[in-house]
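**User:**
My hope is that you can spare some time for a protein that puzzles me. This is the protein in question:
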Amino acid sequence: MDTRRETPDIETSTDAYAQRFTGPVGTWLLDKQWEAVNQMLQGCPGHNILEVGGGHAQLTGTLLDHDYDVTVMGSDPSCAHRIKPFIQPGRCAFNVGDLLDLPYPDRSFDTVIALRLMAHMQDWPRFLSELTRVARHTVIVDYPSQVSVNRVESLLFGLKKAVEGNTRAYQCFTTKIIGNTCLPLGYAPDNRQRQFFWPMVIHRALKMPKLSAAMESVSRAVGLTQTLGSPVVLKLSRITPAKHATAGTITPLDTTAAQTHHSQPAAIRSITPRGSPATA
């Protein structure tokens, strides 16, 4: 048994996890997430996307509706549960594999997206190296920011546990930490979008999307979201060797280290070798 295997996407692919995003507030939260991802996708070459850990189904349908060719990869066959409506009619493919050893050749997909995942990966540097390896041009990830209200997350853990019920430990990052990890891999931060100034658990507890939208609008207008917003959706773009020496200049000035907070249908395939072509 491979003790290095990590499977946090099993939890995020469940109906229980999806309950966090039900109702009008959940719809609003996911709409804001799509706005950020869609912004990152603008100008990206190609329409071939791999969603790593995308069994949460938060993006798959929207990506397909925007004419992207989508493959979702999960760490377990159960991760296909919520995206069966897309798999069964053949609208997208689903593969099973190791999140730390993605079963695809180098540069198999134009863009690789991994949301709701990196914060729960113990070996996140290796995870990032695999995302960048199988991407031709672009990687999009999200993460809780250290430079945000997450710094006092422990004070909100009781509320978060009461509202969400299945809260897990997670890590917070900075753009610079991620950028410094990806630069030797040939990628650098290209764009980022801080989503919310107020913690998402506050919005879930309020259950008033219009009030939440007003609160966030004011926070963005006075510059709080741009400085302290979280989670962050980050676009990493492949850089040419000639740009390696200066790539750090586009990395924002976050400087602290990552911290941990405690808070099968026929279309499904299990893939192990990297030598075979990717399904797209």
